Amino acid sequence: MDDVETRLGAALESCTDADMPVAAASMLDFCGDVLQLSLPHGNSRELTGILVEHFGECDLLVADHEIEVPRLFVSDMDSTMIGQECIDELADFAGIKDEVAAITERAMLGELDFGTALKERVGLLQGLAEDAIDRCLAERISPVAGARTLVATLRSKGCRTALVTGGFHHFADPIADLLGFERVVGNRLGVADGILTGSLVGPVSDASTKLTTLEEERDNLGDGARVLATGDGANDVPMIQAADYGFAYRAKPKARDAANGRINSVDLTAILKLFGIPESEWVEDVSAV
């Protein structure tokens, strides 16, 4: 604890130097070091940087108001609610995973335009049998630890949930059913006679789509509804920034830098802990909600 107190003192001094005096600070007993701060004024993302500097890449959430359970949860899918990038795994069935994965990585880092990169990758899948998607889902795709509990528990608290992905409805619809999301937004793969055409049907679901979905759902809830958003890549940045609680989950640098919440643990129930929801109130199965 002495080391923790030393780091806490150094962090508070850094806050003062940055003209962000802390009104109150205390250590919470959760995974070693969790800091609860009362900050009368200041930039939450600047404070996040100070905390990371002194406490390392721990799980954290910084807000300029009293933290409360959100009324809306909007999440990315690939590498956030599931541990894989669906298009990369699907590409493996066509023998081109490395080629497609390299494009995916650059798009998630923000080095490529997302829409252009998506169409390029989908084009490479032309001629693949549609039933490869079912095999991919069964053999390759699995939820992140704690994902189902996170969704079910938030819904038990009256939170609306939406899964918004730059991926595909072929994957997102069954994943949403498994995890308990109430709304799904994503891209649609073109299929003809059971074969992927290498094109998309309808508009591209991208960063602007994620933001628009968040705004629509928030407006439907009315004034004062707190919003949680989670994601890991550059195309998640607009919705992360628009949310009251924007979490970067084991994220790429652009998403991490945009967020006021960070999860470096594997298990997504870390978010429930940061909202102060005791384990006795966690719900394991959305069917119980």
Q: How would you explain this protein's 3D organization?
A:
With 289 residues, the protein is an alpha/beta fold. The protein folds into two domains: 1-58; 67-84 and 143-289, Rossmann fold, CATH 3.40.50.1000. 43% of the residues lie in helices and 19% in strands. The protein is built from twelve helices and ten strands. The chain has helices at 2-17, 44-55, 86-93, 97-108, 114-124, 131-140, 147-156, 169-179, 207-221, 237-242, 253-258, 269-274; strands at 24-28, 34-38, 60-61, 72-75, 160-168, 183-192, 195-201, 227-231, 245-249, 261-263. It has an eight-stranded mixed sheet, with helices on both faces. Helix 3 (86-93) runs antiparallel to helix 4 and helix 3 (86-93) packs across helix 6. The longest helix is centred in the N-terminal third of the chain and has 16 residues, at 2-17. The protein is globular, with a radius of gyration of 20 Å. Mean pLDDT is 89; it is low at 28-34.
